[in-house]
């Protein structure tokens, strides 16, 4: 393992394995004589999106390690306390209650929209605790009466739904059958897509919901295939999405299947034939790879063996880094000050702070200078609802790999 100079007055070490990054973080925490500043990190570490959430955890841990290598938050150790929600709202509520009881002053997470909605309504808003979700995209989150306590580094599914509708229209799709899993995220994005597609002059011939984790989806697949040759499918890959894709693509007359990031997984390349893969188009939340913040993130993630381009990994890093900046800006680890702290360190105004520049940010804040964090995932500038604008990419399988094209 080698240590190299980083951006600002700090050093970070390359050559971390997944376990090595966790171990280094643990040593930083255990070796400190200071108190811990605790932030809860309720992620879906088991269940339908567990593999993606484990990658997100590594992104958040990298941010935590960097902050502590640069002196910690307010001179104390920055500690993310991870808990498993299993992408289940009931388990999420229990996990978050325990985190808050254990002293968490804020939350980085959750991942799944259904969990975020339930946790916010039942626990964090009543308790006055701010949360910064790393991947929850449901448009229902925007409308929460949240007292300015719910933020997210992932763009709303309104962006992905409207972008997918536009992509479908540009592909020449004029009628589409829609099927979605019955959870909050997929219900929301399907609704946004359907409305946007109809506004472009398209026709939604079938709109159905389905329960996840079924052995097969033959009945649902026959229904959408009877409705149109083009299908918009919204599901999670780990909840039967791969099987559903296979069943839909096996139906005679299905020309193309469109979807969002929940469906795109490593399993598809081995589960589907090249001809079937060629009929898929997915729209994903995406980082702007030309921005300086992303370039720095890419270098840091490579050194720490973190999957830089994994779904919402950059967003998880940003959430963990921003929460540390917010508490530093607030000047005290007080749950009532976190929301204002998050507003104080996000743009568009202020001196730009890039990923990894915690020491620089702290020095500026001590001088009373406003900062503007420009993150790994892009500009993380919150609107009145705590949402960001974000970017998306159109993904198609070609030449043995997924090819992504960034669009607004």
How would you describe this structure to a colleague?
With about 400 residues, the protein is of the alpha/beta class. It has two domains: about 1-155 and about 290-335, Rossmann fold (3-Layer(aba) Sandwich), CATH 3.40.50; about 160-280, Rossmann fold. Helices cover about 40% and strands about 20% of the residues. It has 14 helices and 16 strands. The chain has helices spanning about 20-30, 50-70, 90-100, 115-125, 155-170, 185-200, 220-225, 240-250, 270, 275, 290-305, 315-330, 340-345, 360-365; strands at about 1-5, 10-15, 35-45, 75-85, 105-110, 130-135, 150, 175-180, 205-210, 230-235, 255-260, 280-285, 350-355, 370-375, 390-400, 400-405. The strands form five sheets. The protein has a seven-stranded mixed β-sheet, with helices on both faces. It is globular, with a radius of gyration of 21 Å. The two termini are about 40 Å apart.
Oligomer: single chain
The proportion of residues forming helix, as a percent range, comes to 40-55%
- Structural class call reads alpha/beta
Which stretches of 5+ consecutive residues score pLDDT under 50?
1-20, 22-33
Cross-sheet strand order for the largest sheet: 9-8-10-11-12-15-16
Number of helices: 14
Written as H for each helix and E for each strand, in order along the chain, the element string is EEHEHEHEHEEHEHEHEHEHHEHHHEHEEE
Which CATH top level class of the largest domain fits? Answer: Alpha Beta
Annotated CATH homologous superfamily of the largest domain? Response regulator
CATH topology of the largest domain: Rossmann fold
Largest sheet properties: 7 strands, mixed
